[in-house]
Amino acid sequence: MRFQLLGPMRIQSGVTPLRIAAPKQRTLLAMLLAHAGRPVPLSSLVAEVWDERPPSSAVANLRTYLMRLRHLLSPDGHPEEERLVTADGGYLLRVEPAEFDLARFEAASVRARRFCEQGGLEAAHDEFAAALALWRGTPIEDVPLGPALREVAAHLTERYLNTVEEFTEVQFALGRHAAAAERLRALTVRHPLREGLRGRLMVALYRCGDVAGALDAFRTARQALTDELDVEPGPELRRLHQAILRREPDVAPPGASVLGRRPRPQPRQLPREPAVFTGRSAELSLAGQVLGRDDPPLRTTGPATPPPWDAGGGSRVLALHGPAGAGKSALALRAAHLAAGHYPDGHLYSDLQGCAPGLAPLRPEEVLGRFLRALGVPPGDVPAGQAEAAAVYQSMLADRRVLVFLDNAADAAQVAPLLPAGGGCAAVVTSRPMLSTLDAAHVSVGMLGPAESVRMLALLTGEARVAAEPAAAADIALLCDHQPLAVRIAAARLAGRPDWSLARFAERLRDRGRRLDELQTAGLSVRSSFEASLAALRECPDQDVALRAFRLFGAADLPEIGLARAAELLGVAAEEAEAALDELMKARLLELIDADRFRMHELLRIFAGELAAR
């Protein structure tokens, strides 16, 4: 199939154009296509189709439109190849980058800019020409636009004009001034207030020997600006006018040139990939879909390569959340390394210290400063204020393919200023609480399965050692609650004591009074990871009741509890008990089993029992 937004919207199956005449269906399809490969919430589709004035029947009507589009876009009898699918409370349109004119435009533009940086002007010229040839007019010009699509159209037009200006620089460097002037004449008529185009037209005409034409182009520009905006041309355009009047031999257009740029820094800050990693196949598959890995599972939800386009959709964000010790950072790091090749312009990393014992969470402006310096901003030029630093950061990432890894976040407010807005970028975020207000693919990371935790123990301790005592290895994994951190610590203890049998160490772990003492080694401690979660709990509004509930579960050694029983034991109303249990869940000290039942893992109950005993 072929999908086109760069001009009138066109959809083609093979050689056959697909006719979609109903205006609302065209708006709906354009909205899905502008976010190709990403779910669009139902509420966003309703707001777009009815321009934020939906009737009471809007949702029902929308589902009818979607059903018709699904039938039109998908081959009969092949549900696995459906283009339009339900995903994450919304709808997603599957589009491969090679099928989409916007994706092809962005890919060719990126290649052209890289050739410019490397001095390959002829190759850059050909790539820019190929990119601009995909444009057939104003983007989505024949579709009724709602608020989001109006922004998309304006954004795409700006990207087109920026690319034209960059292409013109290459044409000038190759001496093709007449060809540049021909394109610029038409564009200045359509965009009379854009001084960058006016200046380039003046330069092209002047270098062709048409001095009168260049001066007339300035007079026309000045007339348009004074008539429409009641302003004079800017200082750069005026300086160019004076240079032409003086017949200076070397005149240049206003603005920075795409040529002669120094190669931009490409930071590679990802920590080393975990040497031992087991399980998590489902989570890695989803991470691949979000970050753009090149493997078969991608075909089920989106494009097989990370599209640099994502018009209106912004960057791809993967947010992993889960309890202490669940291995979120290891999983995120594994996913980041697998996807790193799709982000050639750099990989940024920061431990945000959101749950680091004894350390305050990093402020966003501090992280922005580090990232800007890594991206090439001189230290003295890094803005001190968060808002200005964030603006520079987003500008620097706008046309780059960068992966940002934000580990150990405290909350969404700490993360939001650090997420790249550019559609070619992606971010991986880890946190204990779910950062539900982030526009991201949220993945809950729990404990390992029994087989996976024994496998991790074998890889870290020695496969022959585990194979010699399989029952004891399974006991150790169980006594570690199948928690990746605890299993790693147990393996480190065993590796340091090759004289111990696995059975002997399992006996040491069976003593609940000393189990957390056994599960600590240099730099790693299960107890410390729990203490960090508890410190976050002490800042919640219902901290007194929540802390008492946590200690109570430890004292009573209750693996599961219902809401009514918890309220009874706490001696408070059900509403107050529910609020306290909610806080425990946010701190990942408790898990929800179903509507009114909760579970606490054994290692946490042991820790809570220690607090209760104190």
Provide structural commentary.
Mean pLDDT is 86; it is low at 293-313. The chain is an alpha/beta fold and 614 residues long. The strands form five sheets. Strands 8-9-10-7-11 form a five-stranded parallel β-sheet, sandwiched between helices. Strands 1-2-3 form a three-stranded antiparallel β-sheet, with no helix packed on it. The chain starts with a strand and ends with a helix. It has 26 helices and 16 strands. Strand 12 (520-521) and strand 13 form a beta hairpin.
What can be said about this structure in brief?
With 614 residues, the chain is an alpha/beta fold. It is 51% helix and 10% strand.
How far apart the termini lie comes to 68 Å
Largest sheet, if any?
A: 5 strands, parallel
| Unreliably modeled segments | 293-313
The number of distinct β-strands equals 16
Please give the radius of gyration in angstroms: 30 Å
Whole-number mean pLDDT: 86
Number of helices: 26
**CA-based shape:** elongated
* Class by alpha and beta content: alpha/beta
Strand content: 5-15%
Task: Give me the oligomer status.
Answer: single chain
Q: Record the strand order, biggest sheet.
A: 8-9-10-7-11
What percentage of residues falls in helices of 4 or more residues?
40-55%
